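A.,

Following up on our hallway conversation. Structure tokens first:
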């Protein structure tokens, strides 16, 4: 096992040297990471293929292009993001500097998961670099080929003192977590998320936990079903269902269920042909343990579509299950595979009741042409994200925060939200020592009196901020009055000297 104490200490020394505070240094590191993505795109795609038998098109969309766009977005905006903010001031602070500075936390730990082993690790790493931190990078050991790529390649492109890569599984991670970090960003299961939270708590380290759970998908009777089926199955089957925001299960009426199944059979044939196993467009289950776990879940309810599997390839056919019960295993734990149970409900009201009786999901999907139904679902449920008539795509909008709530996680990232996650907002008040300011504020000092209290009350009273719209008018009027007074004085001076 590597000496984690030394690794973290080296990061601390590097952070203390101040080099990551230099925005140009951060930009250079990010540009170099972008170069790594560009120069080694094929190796990344090959590693994903070796780990998950991921089709190239999927890897391009959800990993390599995603990563490149993420860094470009940061590079285009970083100079604006790092600027201190100047919030509104009240009367009492009129003469002061009131600013919020964007401070890096220091040495942060980023722990990635195996299902999108590059994106889920390197997007938060880039955000942490942008914010000026040193980062200990821990890939998931389960996606071995991607972990090897990161361990070998990242040190060739990033500063080795500031951004070390560490490898290992639960034992090593448990050891690593004994170190004191200034921030921990974790992606993975809710079970391990609790372990990470507990370890962070020992040092009162703030955390972001990007966790999982069961994301429901409600289909309303008003839907255009063919499109809905395609979007739901695509969201379910990309990466063979091993996606944290995959629609976990469907909620719909019995009538919609029948139509959904008929459409799904046609769509699957269109996408993967008669022999799905021989299609190059469906990934495989990551390992034997998960394969066995999924076979166990397949025992719930009745198979309506699919149901075949092959252990030698860790292949599981896209499978739709019906007649599942609320307490069946498949309706209890996150599926994380190509199995789609349908749980029948009468209407949107029942769907809301069902969703609200469970843990808060990472995302809720609704398919409907009726905007009232969509609004009902959105306003009466709680989830990390919400998407109507689409699956997964909300994750690619870099101006939207991505994250869970309750048992699906805490914190958010992507785009500016990633930068802010790794930034401490330092509140700064700057005053001078001018006698006028001191005189105005002297009412705060003992001996206290009613007169001082009244004066302070007037100064501190909350007032509605003056609308910015009129500020320019006010300034113009003030300037006019000022110039008039000056001009009058000047003319009077001239007259007197005559
Ligand atoms: P995983 O097994 O790769 O674990 C994630 C990380 O935790 C790894 O780096 C691993 O080394 C570490 N780890 C595992 N056990 C540990 C332990 N006992 N102590 C300390 N560290 C430990 O991934 P996983 O947990 O199987 O990932 C799948 C889960 O992640 C699913 O629940 C999925 O929904 C969730 N997920 C969430 C997101 C999100 O963005 N919210 C994204 C992807 C996956």
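Then the amino acids I'd put at each of the 498 positions:
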């Amino acid at each position: 096992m590597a000496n984690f104490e030394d690794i973290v200490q080296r990061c601390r020394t590097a952070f203390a040297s101040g080099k990551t505070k230099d925005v140009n240094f951060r930009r250079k590191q990010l540009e170099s990471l972008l170069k790594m993505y560009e120069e080694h795109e094929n190796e990344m795609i090959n590693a994903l293929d070796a780990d998950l038998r991921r089709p190239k098109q999927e890897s391009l969309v959800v990993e390599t292009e995603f990563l490149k766009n993420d860094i470009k977005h940061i590079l285009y905006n970083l100079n604006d993001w790092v600027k201190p903010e100047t919030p509104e001031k009240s009367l009492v602070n009129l003469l002061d500097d009131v600013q919020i500075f964007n401070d890096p936390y220091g040495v942060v730990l980023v722990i990635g998961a195996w299902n999108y082993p590059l994106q889920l690790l390197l997007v938060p790493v880039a955000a942490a670099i942008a914010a000026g931190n040193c980062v200990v990078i821990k890939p998931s050991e389960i996606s071995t080929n991607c972990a090897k790529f990161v361990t070998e390649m990242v040190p060739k492109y990033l500063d080795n003192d500031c951004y070390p890569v560490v490898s290992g599984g639960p034992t090593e991670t448990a050891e690593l977590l004994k170190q004191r970090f200034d921030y921990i960003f974790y992606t993975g299961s809710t079970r391990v998320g609790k372990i990470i939270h507990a370890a962070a708590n020992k040092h009162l380290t703030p955390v972001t936990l990007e966790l999982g759970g069961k994301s429901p998908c409600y289909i309303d009777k008003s839907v255009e079903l063919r499109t809905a089926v395609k979007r739901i199955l695509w969201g379910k089957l990309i990466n063979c269902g091993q996606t944290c925001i995959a629609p976990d299960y469907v909620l719909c009426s019995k009538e919609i269920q029948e139509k959904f199944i008929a459409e799904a059979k046609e769509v699957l044939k269109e996408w993967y042909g008669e022999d799905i196993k021989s299609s190059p467009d469906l990934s495989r289950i990551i390992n034997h343990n998960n394969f066995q776990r999924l076979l166990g879940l397949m025992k719930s309810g009745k198979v309506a579509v699919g149901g075949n599997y092959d252990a030698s390839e860790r292949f599981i056919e896209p499978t739709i299950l019906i007649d599942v019960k609320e307490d069946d295993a498949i309706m209890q734990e996150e599926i994380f595979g190509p199995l789609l149970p349908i749980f029948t409900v009468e209407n949107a009201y029942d769907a809301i009741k069902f969703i609200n009786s469970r843990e808060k999901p990472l995302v809720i999907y609704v398919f409907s042409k009726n905007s009232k139904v969509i609004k009902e679902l959105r306003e009466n449920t709680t989830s990390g994200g919400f998407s109507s008539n689409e699956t997964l795509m909300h994750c690619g909008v870099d101006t939207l925060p991505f994250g869970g709530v309750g048992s699906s996680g805490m914190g958010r990232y992507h785009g500016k939200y990633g930068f802010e996650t790794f930034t401490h907002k330092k509140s700064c008040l700057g005053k001078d020592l001018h006698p006028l300011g001191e005189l105005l504020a002297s009412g705060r000092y003992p001996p206290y009196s009613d007169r001082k209290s009244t004066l302070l009350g007037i100064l501190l009273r909350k007032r509605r901020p003056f609308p910015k719209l009129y500020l320019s008018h006010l300034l113009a009027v003030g300037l006019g009055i000022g110039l008039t007074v000056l001009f009058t004085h000047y003319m009077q001076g001239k007259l007197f000297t005559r």
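The chain has two domains: 4-211+414-426, 216-403. Curious whether your intuition agrees with the design.

B.
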